[in-house]
Design goal:
The complex is a heterodimer of chains A (about 325) and B (about 550). Chain A is about 35% helix and about 20% strand. In chain A, the strands form three sheets. Chain A has a five-stranded mixed beta sheet, with helices on one face. The longest helix of chain B is centred in the first third of the chain and has 36 residues. The chains are: A alpha+beta (about 325), B mainly alpha (about 550).
């Protein structure tokens, strides 16, 4: 029961959602009491006093009809604007958020930190730092739900969705799958550990079993023989991947696409969906040959080939074992 | 004896006997009773599933049934209650029986199609029951892909075929109602003299005809993917899983209005009859039904706020969802205003009407919460949603159905139900309902996800309250079943118009003759004109 009382100040947006809730409850309580009181009052005051009683007919009242349409509508528009504004902020991760990848599958959560830490059904994050989750599913639709942070987003196979939060109080919080996903849906749960910075450093220095995501992606890039065609200098049969991520790519047919995570993912799994201008559709699909985690590593590798100013590349920050903050 | 007195006059119940006279009947009143029998059966089946769910959730550890069984229970509870009880409930029973009589017609426009509609519901129901007996289905009533098309090892297609067939029952009933209202009104029965129940049935029929085919198409697509692996929804086959959600809710959100609009129509009749007042703002109440039917088609995307749908689409659907709230608010305010300076009596149907307004108000207002983007992200797919839609569907639709069933029982059977027992059960249902579902709002806000077989121990107190409420509610539902059966033999003989109501159905005998009226009625005044019924002694309260 302790969880109930301490459920209200756990993330940056939690008090904002609760303030909106308070407004919604207040408006609803007002109208509920108004309707209940009116019914009760009329039902008593105008109770039938004789069997042949015939009240004066009333047809209606236009000003009243307008009033009880317009006033509630005005109130709902406040709800709409307030809710939409909050939703926009819920949907837009801050630029400095720490990136974490999430892969949902029946019935577990697999989480990958940039530095190579991998967790199952657990996520360790430092207090006060915004965290951005990029999520996909290996099988059916799941939904990543942390009630204490007031956040939820579906985790859909075939695409990336994002969710972010800034935890503000150290502690343990429930992680639930909120989209029904089959037999053990109710056991697809986990724990978010929000830690003080020192504790978190200790946890991080516990060591990652493997290299960073980008490093692992580089190894995968070699072992899948991607480099046979994707030469760094652009001389291969396929386009170079250096300085591609985050840039515009011209496609056959003249369209342009921004190379983001979804584009890279699609190019690995359905390579013929979008063909870069000047190249032939010769790449085979890697569907089934590379896991969702592997795709994430490849994406991070491709990202590392397009270092942004101030962003650590494979060769310095991440490889040195520090925690990547952008 | 009194029974002898009833049997002297020929009416729809005694004009012929034998199974064949029922199974091949073209009389809308007999077909209504066939529906009544059928959906009562389905209600009982759905109730058994609900009982298993509530027993399981008394403890957090999932130790009553297995996860597989639990998942099948909530799936089949939803499917049976929605497709085989709530959607046919008021239209197919009360609408079938009374819509023609209320507009002065001798039957629906297409009596044979009406009978076919019932057979379709039964055929669909048999498929669904076969699926349940063969092993059940575990996809949730929402059938979300790719779980339903590629992962569930249960009887998805048999169930879906059942729903597909039952959908045509709904379409044909809607079509029959629309054409009947357009072409079969008695002389003098203008559109604005029609009882509001007829208006609401008309609006409902529009949704049935326009929305249900989309469900049928969606089921066919699921079938194609599950059987023939044609990639429509599954991303592994090149499909789009969110597309399914758009198609599903394009029908299933309006379907909520198929369930609640008829109940609203019943409430208008009850409030007027038991306060002896014309419904305040009749035109506004009538048009608000049409507004709900039309606007209801524009809001489906509010089920997809966290589905990865574009945030701008989410914003538009949130905005439009608030529009559909206004006609509902107009109805509630007008019903309340109808009571003002009325002559109010507290027979059982009126208690249900009061209960409906209260529970629908809470259900409707929490709908505003869910339409609010920033709030919905937190509570969607939690018990908050479960509580909300049960306030609408059980607190609203079933209260309306039971209110209407009690109100028209004397007309349908020629017998009064026992008033004391009926009031008691109405009270039990109201209290049991609130105890069952109010704690679920709190559960949802605290983060309890829906469709969970096991749950963290901190949620147990509220779950136990909910299960306790469900057992009270079960008693409340059992009572009418018993005393209504009892009343068929022992109930007081009902006169033609026991409530002093104004509708044409009260101007013919109880039970009505085979062709409803001895001669076609001629309508000379508007609905809800009590001066003609109550007589000339006027006392203004």
């Amino acid at each position: 029961m302790g969880n109930f009382l301490s459920l209200f100040l756990q993330a940056a947006l939690t008090p904002e959602v609760d303030a909106l809730t308070a407004f919604l409850v207040a408006v609803s309580a007002f109208f509920t009491v108004l309707i209940f009181a009116a019914i009760f009052f009329f039902a008593v005051k105008y109770r039938r006093r004789s069997e042949r009683e015939l009240p004066e007919p009333v047809h209606g009242n236009l000003p009243l009809e307008i009033a009880w349409s317009v006033i509630p509508f005005g109130l709902t528009m406040i709800m709409f604007v307030w809710g939409a504004d909050l939703f926009f902020r819920e949907s837009r991760p801050p630029d400095n958020a720490t990136q974490i990848y999430v892969v949902g599958k029946q019935w577990m959560w697999k989480l990958q930190h940039m530095d190579g830490h991998r967790e199952i059904n657990e996520l360790h994050v430092p207090v006060g730092k915004p965290v951005k989750l990029t999520m996909t599913s290996e099988d059916v639709i799941h939904s990543f739900f942390v009630p204490a942070f007031r956040v939820k987003e579906d985790v859909v196979p075939g695409r990336y969705s994002t969710l972010w939060f800034t935890p503000t109080t150290p502690g343990k919080y429930h992680l639930f799958c909120a989209e029904y996903c089959g037999t053990n849906h109710s056991r697809m749960i986990g724990t978010i550990y929000v830690m003080n910075p020192e504790e978190y450093q200790t946890w991080v220095s516990g060591g990652a079993p493997m290299g960073s995501l980008a490093e692992e992606g580089g190894k995968l890039f070699e072992s899948l023989a991607c480099a046979n065609c994707h030469h760094a200098d652009g001389s291969g049969r396929c386009p170079t991947l250096v300085n591609v991520f985050g840039h515009q790519v011209e496609l056959t047919g003249g369209n342009h696409v921004t190379a983001d995570e979804a584009y890279i993912r699609e190019s690995i799994l359905q390579p013929n969906a979008k063909i870069v201008s000047g190249y032939q559709p010769i790449m085979p699909s890697f569907q089934g040959l590379v896991t969702e985690e592997g795709v994430v590593e490849l994406i991070e590798y491709v990202k590392s080939l397009s270092p942004k100013p101030g962003m650590p590349s494979v060769t310095n920050g991440i490889a040195a074992g520090t925690v990547p903050h952008r | 004896m009194i029974t002898a007195a009833v049997q002297e006059r020929e009416h729809y119940l005694n004009e012929s006997y034998g199974l064949k006279s029922w199974l091949l009947t073209k009389d809308h009143k007999r077909i209504a009773l066939l529906y009544l029998f059928t959906i009562t059966l389905f209600f009982a089946v759905g109730g058994v599933f609900a009982t298993v769910i509530r027993i399981e959730l008394i403890t957090p550890s999932g130790n009553f049934v297995s996860s597989e069984t639990y998942n099948k229970m909530f799936t089949m509870h939803g499917i049976v209650m929605i497709f085989f009880f709530l959607i046919p409930s008021i239209p197919a029973v009360l609408g079938n029986f009374f819509l023609p009589i209320m507009i002065g017609a001798r039957d629906l426009a297409f009596p044979k199609i009406n009978l076919l509609s019932w057979y379709l519901l039964v055929a669909g129901g048999l498929f669904a029951i076969f699926a349940m007996l063969a092993g059940g289905v575990d996809t949730g009533w929402t059938f979300y892909v790719p779980y339903s098309t590629g992962y569930s090892n249960t009887w998805v297609i048999a169930t879906a075929i059942g729903i597909f067939i039952a959908g045509f029952s709904s379409i044909l009933t809607g079509l029959n109602f629309i054409i009947t209202v357009h072409t079969m009104r008695a002389p003098g029965m203008t559109w604005f003299r029609m009882p509001l129940f007829v208006w609401s049935q008309y609006a409902t029929a529009l949704i049935q005809v326009l929305g249900t085919p989309v469900l049928a198409v969606t089921i066919v697509l699921v079938f194609c993917e599950r059987f023939f692996h044609i990639g429509i929804f599954d991303p592994a086959l090149g499909g789009d899983p969110v597309l399914f959600q758009h198609l599903f809710w394009f029908y299933s959100h309006p379907a909520v209005y198929i369930m609640i609009l008829p109940a609203m129509g019943v409430i208008s009749e009850l409030i007027s009859t038991f306060s002896r007042k014309r419904v305040f703002g009749y035109e506004f109440v009538a048009f608000s039904s049409l507004a709900i039917a039309i606007l209801g088609f524009l809001v489906w995307g509010h089920h997809l706020f966290v589905s990865t749908q574009s945030i701008y689409a989410g914003m538009i659907f949130s905005f439009l969802s608030y529009f559909v709230a206004i006609p509902s608010a107009i109805k509630v305010f007008n019903w309340t205003a109808t009571l003002y300076k009325g002559s109010i009596s507290y027979e059982t149907p009126m208690l249900y009407a009061f209960g409906f307004i209260g529970l629908f108000t809470i259900g409707g207002l929490t709908g505003l919460f869910l339409a609010c983007l920033g709030f919905d992200v937190h509570v969607t797919d939690t018990y908050f949603v479960v509580a909300h839609f049960h306030y609408i569907m059980v607190g609203g639709a079933i209260m309306g159905y039971l209110g209407g069933l009690h109100f028209w029982w004397p007309k349908m059977t020629g017998r009064m139900y026992p008033e004391g027992w009926a009031k008691l059960s109405a009270l039990i249902i109201f209290l049991g309902f609130n105890l069952t579902f109010f704690p679920q709002f709190i559960l949802g806000y605290l983060g309890m996800p829906r469709r969970y077989h096991t749950y963290p121990a901190e949620f147990q107190v509220l779950h136990v309250l909910s299960s306790a409420g469900a057992s009270v509610l079960a008693v409340g539902y059992l009572l009418p079943f018993i005393y209504l059966m009892w009343s068929l033999k022992y109930g007081q003989i009902a006169g033609a118009n026991p409530w002093g109501a104004t509708g044409l159905e009260w101007q013919t005998a109880s039970p009505p003759p085979k062709h409803n009226f001895e001669k076609t009625p001629i309508v000379t005044h508007e609905a809800y004109d009590y001066s003609a019924v109550i007589g000339s002694e006027v006392e203004v309260g």
